[in-house]
Amino acid sequence: MRVTVRPLAERPHAATRLFCFPYAGGGASVFRDWAAALPADIEPWAVQLPGREDQLGAPLLERMGDVLNALVPEVIPHLNRPFAFFGHSMGGLVAWSLTRTLQRMEAGSPTRLFVSGCLPPQAREETAYHAGSEEELVEKLRSWAATPEEVLADPELMRLLLPVIRADLAVVETFRFTDGPLLTCPVTAFAGTEEDPAGTAVMPLWGELTVGGFDLRMFPGGHFFLHSARPAVAAEISGRLAAVPRHGGH
After folding, report:
1. Which of 84, 125, 179, 182 sits a CA distance of 20 to 30 A from 101?
2. pLDDT of 141-168, one tens digit each?
3. Catalytic residue among 29, 89, 116, 238
């Protein structure tokens, strides 16, 4: 039941490590093209929860506490140079939760947290899609337009995908926000211009969770703009990380 944290490109002289957290149902391959989109000064790493891709069949994690317990010991050894976190949708909530946990442990803090297509935790509505029937879950996936129709129509593929989606949704939907110390790092939120306007309207509430400063950047596209607008997303990340001071010896 291991979380894996792996570099997408070996860049030993990079100034910053960027840890990337995928959306629900996703694995490290979500970010497979990011190394080419980011400059040599940023070393991209992918975070992968168990039960997907090369860990297919491994026990799934269904609560945020279990995700953090598995993630912390895997990430901490790699925080030996300036680092940043990027998370999309579920990945944004995990990245924020991990940032708060590391700060509480005095184990380090990212130079910047990027939360992409992710509602602020204090503004999330309670849902229980993870508890629905297979048919209801398939229809919900169809409505999100994230899964190709040929995949949704393939019983064998769905047999593999649905348990992962259900577990990831459980992580998000059973999470409950509690007040705690504010983050000390700056937070940048990304959102798509075609996402739910009600969700976009609450994105500035991320600024209430940090004393490090906040900004919001909109990209053309729907919820999965991180794919359709990848060059622009990578450019925004690169620009904000360019000012990070070099770590001695790297």
Report:
1. 125
2. 777 766 778 888 888 888 888 899 999 9
3. 89
